[in-house]
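Workshop exercise sheet. Pairs work together: one partner reads the sequence aloud, the other fills in the structure field after running the prediction. Swap roles for the next sheet.
Pair: D.N. / O.F.
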Amino acid sequence: MAADEKEEARLRALRELNLLDTAPSENFDRITRLAAQFFETPISAVSLTDVDRQWFKSGVGCGPQIPREHAPCAEVTRSGDVLVVSDLAEDPRFNKGVLVENGVRFYAGAPLVTKEGFTLGSMCVLDTVPREIGKDDEKALRDLAAMVMTQIELQHAIGRIDPVSGLPNRQQFTENLEDLARDFAGERRLAILLDLAPPNQIVQALRVLGPTYLDDLMRLSVEGVRNLKVEGHTVYHVGGAQLLAVIGDADEERVEVELVKRLNMLADFSRGRGAASLSHMACGIAPFILGEVKAGDVLRAAHHAAQDARESDRVVGIYSAATDEEHKRRYALIAALRELLERGGDGELSLVYQPRIDLKTGRCYGAEALLRWDHPEYGSVSPAEFIPLAEQTDLMRPLTSWVKLRAIAQLRAWRDEGYDLRVSINVSAANLEEEEFGLRLASVLAENGVSPSCLEIEFTESTFISNRRRVVKNLTDIRELGVVCAIDDFGTGYSTFSYLHDFPADIIKIDQTFIRKLEPGSRGSILVQSLIHMAGALGYRVVAEGVETQDVADFLIEAGCHEGQGYLFSRPLPPEAFADWLKSHAAERLEGYAA
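Structure field:
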């Protein structure tokens, strides 16, 4: 191998180890302190030989780097052997170097050699006076160099380097940030997180292209980042498709402008390189103070900024404490809900019931069970806020289980009191993807002595987006039990009437957004009328949600809608109040018939 090729290979090996320009590390600092104490020298260093500099991964009594020219460490790298210079000022190879200019006279260095035979630099000790060392001292210096290489190999191999990208991982980032915080506490830094692709794109690509897609995406991105010629900052692989770098204090907006340019270059680099495209990247910038925040908080803030960028169709986003308050609330609510469900849910969670009325007869056939959460700190938390959070986590299943048990028990109690009612509960895609969901539902009904026909489950059209086969099977099993199935919020999801052929359902509930602003003769009224006619022709019972005025109710009756639900009849009520409403409603109907 030619000298130039050998040096190029050596530099490539050095960069793949991700040592240059990384934070100080206590693991290396212990070795340099030990070297200085053993040799009784004021200066010691782990010196890495870069293209044109000697950079000190760790050092006692020295700065961060010196020029490579006339540096004795560069000679150690070239020769791959121990070098001892009693007086640098008397050696023509080094007497014009920066070390001599700064009063250094003695140098001794042992090579840092990888298993592949590449010399990375040296473990060296220096003094301001000329001196000699013996063979035992040279052996000790070699041992110290071996300790450095052991640490490098451990850092690279054991839990700190991602095997696919070859980059240091989140654990290494955490340790490096702790080292930075110890040495530079109070200084400001910027964390830059590159999110290579949105989660839904990754999931879809994995299904089509297989598990190698993510590996290819990461390899392509790492190659692209290296092609950007960005020097001086460690890049970490902190997530499945996420890279992170920490840079010094700088103006965020200026950094944003530069990042947009670089990321456009990266997207151009990836274009035409197959399925692993980098055209959907988002980048987040998060400023922080060393020593004041933990690694997890830095990552979360940078991720938050990247997600804000993606949601607003930008390439780069800057962390905002104001908007982050919303995210912090979400995290807090998820944690609180998880803890609450682990305690059984009672005390804060409750159900209220909104009547469903036969529009022609005025009879109350049943009610929809609606979940409420009264948090001791946050007060009344809207279902529109916490239900989507539960759906994004693993909490939807236990939450629905809580609703199912309480609603069926309440249904049993009402039927014991002589009320012939059907209660509907809402279930999500996560519930209908569970194995044997129908069997467990049947078990709860049997335990409470409730006929399956008294229960109705409501699901939205989006339920069918994923795992369609299992969802359809569960719904088919549920209907065979005798449980009534209803498509909720119809018209707002992904379905059209062509999909209804495959939906195992009995009822269609037209979403309240169509009903609340309904005006006879408007385009909206024509749409609702068409929905009712077509659903009825297909054999579905039609329920309109959000009925608030008698004019709307009259229109729905004329259009052939079967049931209505909304404030015209009643707001959602606690169980006791609902029973009282049933009595008064029945009395009003009797008075109406008597009149």
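Discussion prompt: The mean pLDDT is 87. What would you look at next?
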